[in-house]
Amino acid sequence: MNPWNNVPAADYERHMSHETVGQLAELNEITREKVEQRYPQTVAVYGACTGNGLAHFVDARTVYAVDINPAYLAICHDRYDPILNELVLVQADINHDVVPIPADSVDLIICHLFLEYVDLERAFASFRQVLRPGGLLNIVLQRSNDTGWVSNTGVTTLRPVAAIAHEVPDETLRQHALPEFRFAGSQTYRMPNGKSLVSYDFINGEVAQSTSEESTDFEWPEW
Asked: How many CB atoms lie within 10 A of CB 216?
């Protein structure tokens, strides 16, 4: 069984919101920024967990919450179904399952701290299937910076997930995004525990490219 199925939701949230980790709040803010950039009508959240950030999608028509853990999705439903126009829960193991989202239907994909635990080929195949031309793919990766993969917050149930984790190098990510997804910038966030979060934006490049001489390899300053 995938170890993520054995992490209680309360433990996950306690760890991610711990003062030395702070990742829930930062990821929530990144999601808000992407919504304000795009005002998407259809959103897919890969690795939705307990729904951090879903509250920002109140103006969207449809939100797909994709996760392997049915208990996490049940919490998503209880918390966010009352405030969202349409919340579609998708329980899937992307390493083995086809994610049942209509092709070319999604304006925004949120993929935060997800690719480190899955097969990259299968994940990007799913992104290519569902993201419409011109749509935005936002990926956040963790950089442990030699501090260990799972911080010591007193929550021990998360330790087994480190056994399936793999840090995704920048170049590996960009290679998997080619040729369909055009890199549109990245931003690094320094976390209290010495780790970093790196947020990457990719555009489905089937939309007409700009003729501007501005470089698409612009990287946002670190905060």
From this structure: 13
> Of 147, 140, 141, nearest to 193 (Cα)?
147
Residue 149 falls within a domain, yes or no? yes
**Tokens matching residue 1:** 């069984």
Q: How far apart are CA 23 and CA 37, in angstroms?
A: 21
For residue range 117-152, what is the model confidence (pLDDT) as tens digits?
999 999 999 999 999 999 999 999 999 888 777 888
Identity of residue 24: L
pLDDT at 217 over 50: no
Residue 219 inside a domain? The answer is: no
- Domain-embedded: residue 156: yes
Residue 169: count of CB within 10 angstroms of its CB: 11
Q: How many CB atoms lie within 10 A of CB 210?
A: 9
Is 80 exceeded by the pLDDT of residue 221?
no
CA dist 108 and 111 (Å) reads 10
Give residues with Cβ within 8 angstroms of 169, minimum separation 6: none
DSSP β-bridge partners for residue 196: 143, 190
pTM for this entry:
0.90
**206 confidence band (pLDDT: 50, 70, 90):** low
Strands (E), the chain: 42-46, 62-67, 87-91, 106-112, 131-143, 181-190, 196-204
For residue 192, being part of any structural domain is answered with yes
96 pLDDT higher than 90: yes
Helix (H, G, I), strand (E, B) or coil at 143: strand
